[in-house]
Amino acid sequence: MAALWILVASFLFSLMGAAVKLASSEYSVAEIVFYRGLVGIILLYFFIRHQGGRLRTEHLGGHLWRGSIGVVSLWMWFYAATKLPLATAVTLNYMSPIWTAVAVIAFAWWQGRQRIALPLLAAIGVSFGGVILALRPAFEAQQWFGALMALLSGVLAAVAYTMVRRLSRAGEPEYRVVFYFLAVNIAAGLAGSLLPGGSPDGAAWHAHSPRGAALLLFIGASGVFAQMALTRAWRTGKVLVVANLQYTGIVFSSVWGILIWHDVFDWHVWLGMGLILASSIAATFYNTVTEKRAAAAASAGVDH
Predict the structure, then answer these.
(1) 252 CB neighbour count, 10 Å cutoff
(2) pTM for the complete prediction?
(3) Is residue 19 part of a domain?
(4) Which contacts (CB < 8 Å, 24+ apart) does range 168-171 have?
(5) Structural domains in the chain (count)
(6) Partner of 89 for a Cys bridge, out of 53, 66, 84, 181, CB 3.0 to 4.6 A?
(7) Helices 210-236 + 174-194 axis angle, to 10
């Protein structure tokens, strides 16, 4: 069942990305972030009330930190989606396992360990080779900045996932983590819209057309349902299965890009995206196996 949940989440996230790209012709990124949070939090609130959940928490600081890092990551990802072909933006954003691998190697070097995991080094090298291929031929300056935003979004997403795991270990239910994240979305989107330069045309808020309003509602609804499906998958499924099936989002996004924007990629772009995908899966596998071995060793030490 977890496999189905992660497929649903990946499908909905890819649709949300397509809707964000379409909505960017009528709204600023700040407005999209705001409405994503507003629509999502309203829907989630009714769900929480129906389930009898509570919003009161003893870990407000942790939620605010997770929400702040998460919303910056989301903002960067939305910006990248408006500037790049959708499949390229999604692929670059899905490099979180590679950044985790970089952190593992950097930590090992900092600790003075002589042995560096060669599989992780290989995955990192292959992934960045894939980035170079995926971004050729040279993009316009605006597109290169979008690519940088997608990469940085993946870095912050890796940090946010770590903070979510910590909150879960502290006993925080999934709906509460998502609720406070959406609340930070609202605050950040509102602040971004009101700040000078928050919108390319200088307008803090834009009037709604039927098309624009429908897109914003869809972004908020698909985002919160995808988030809940993703959380359910991580809670009930095996880590490797869930982590690898989430990359189907790249396939879905490629389909939307071809159908809606008639994206056409040269062979080296597909090759680059394939290398990023393969190296990310390999890094996920290695990181997961290493964590399991470390946990087993620690458990054996306690037993003895």
Answers:
(1) 21
(2) 0.86
(3) no
(4) 170/59, 170/62
(5) 1
(6) 84
(7) 150
